[in-house]
Amino acid sequence: MKIRKQFKIGLFFVSLLIISIAYSCKDQKQTIREEINLGIKATYANEWKIAIDHFNYVISLDSNNAEAYLYLGRTYMGKRNYKLALKQYNKSIELNPKFGEAYRSRAQVYAILGDKDAACRDYVKAEDLGVENLYNYTKFCR
Fold first, then answer.
1. If 0-12 CB within 10 Å is exposed, 13-18 middle and 19+ buried, where does residue 139 land?
2. SS3 80
3. Rounded mean pLDDT of 52-60?
4. CB of 112 within 8 A of CB of 89?
5. In Å, how far from its chain's centre is CA 121?
6. Cα 136 → chain centroid
7. Rounded to 5 degrees, what angle do the CA atoms 84, 101, 22 make?
8. Is residue 17 predicted with pLDDT exceeding 60?
9. What does the alpha-carbon distance between residue 40 and residue 100 come to, in Å, rounded to a whole number?
10. Which of 88, 87, 38, 41 is nearest to 65 (CA)?
11. What is the mean pLDDT of residues 33-57?
């Protein structure tokens, strides 16, 4: 009888722990989504430092967030810092090799830098991964 009561108490505390972890994860996911949206908004307003801070905060919460690296790269593109943009896109692709938008964005940097072959490879890859409206970029690549 005593063992059964102790088991129920232990089960209760384990259940509370699982619920608190699940709630914490949901809360963190919501925070990440909000921070990414704030970063995107700041990017559109050319508020580069604010955008970078939001995306870096997301990365501090989840260093495997390919989307945060993508948008961080886009922010550096806006600042015309193509070297840092490439670095972020590379990290995004490393984390998620099937992230078509990262390939499309990296292709834009390669095109700006004059590396037509690399740009074509990435535009075609992005198109293969489902990114739409790239025909004007890929029609000369195949």
1. exposed
2. coil
3. 97
4. no
5. 21
6. 26
7. 95
8. no
9. 18
10. 88
11. 97
Per-residue model confidence (pLDDT) at position 141 = 86
Q: Write the pLDDT tens digit of every residue in 67-119.
A: 999 999 999 999 999 999 999 999 999 999 999 999 999 999 999 999 999 99
List all residues 6 or more positions away from 48 whose beta carbon is below 8 Å from its beta carbon.
42, 75, 78, 79
Give residue 97's pLDDT. 98
CATH superfamily of 36-138: Tetratricopeptide repeat domain (1.25.40.10)
The rounded distance, in Å, linking the Cα atoms of 71 and 104 is 12
Return d(Cα 122, Cα 100) in angstroms, integer: 9
Residue 86 tokens read as 């490439």
- For residue 26 the two structure tokens come to 């949901």
Say which residues have a Cβ less than 8 Å from residue 34's Cβ, sequence separation at least 6.
none
Dist CA 73 CA 3 (whole Å): 57
pLDDT at 140 (0 to 100): 81
